[in-house]
Amino acid sequence: MKVKFVALAMSFIFGAAMIISMSSANLPEAKPWKTPDKYAKMKAPKSTPESIAKGKELYTKHCKSCHGVTGKGDGTKAASLKTTITAFSDKAFKGLTDGDKYFRAVIGRDEMPNFEKKLVSEDERWAVIQYIGTL
Ligand code: HEC
């Protein structure tokens, strides 16, 4: 009697764990980003043809390997990542504030690297952000 109960409880726990792990693997949207106040109010400077060109150069050097030439998230390194990358042409991305984009692009999280050391000046950071906005 007791053994049966334990077996039943075990199979229930296993079943529940299976369902939970399967459903999280199928989630279409990654975990939501939360922009800290410090970044939320940031405003991008006005873009110029020069800033976009500079942004493209920096993007090619630092971002293309994962995000891909056209920003679809299909760079050569993307396949080896666990996280699915949203395309920069996606409506959800286009609708973000400057501060949201800055936080995601410069600070990052998990598999999205931090770029504070590689993109040193604010000009460089905004140039890349403006460039990905054109993709
Ligand atoms: C090593 C691979 C890698 C490199 C290099 C990389 N990224 Fe990412 N990026 C990611 C991944 C993975 C995500 C998704 C992260 C997540 O959702 O947790 C991401 C997400 C982002 C997002 C947020 C997109 C969204 O869902 O809103 C922005 C913006 C971004 N990256 C910009 C950049 C910029 C700009 C560069 C270059 C300066 C860059 N990334 C370089 C892997 C990379």
Features:
135 residues; binds heme C; Cytochrome Bc1 Complex, Chain D, domain 2; mainly alpha; 53% helix; 0% strand; 7 helices
Description:
With 135 residues, this protein is mainly alpha-helical. It has a single domain (30-132), classed as Cytochrome Bc1 Complex, Chain D, domain 2, CATH 1.10.760. It is built from seven helices and no strands. The protein has helices spanning 2-25, 37-40, 49-62, 64-67, 91-94, 98-107, 122-132. Helix 3 (49-62) crosses helix 7 and helix 6 (98-107) crosses helix 7. It binds heme C (HEC). Heme C is lined by residues 30, 62-63, 65-67, 77, 81, 83, 85-86, 93, 101, 104-105, 109-113, 115, 128, 132.
CATH H-level superfamily: Cytochrome c-like domain
Tell me the β content.
under 5%
Terminal-residue CA separation: 65 Å
Bound molecules: heme C
Describe the structure in brief:
With 135 residues, the protein is mainly α. The chain has helices at residues 2-25, 37-40, 49-62, 64-67, 91-94, 98-107, 122-132.
SSE topology sketch:
Layout: H1 2-25, H2 37-40, H3 49-62, H4 64-67, H5 91-94, H6 98-107, H7 122-132
Helix pairs in contact: 3-7, 6-7
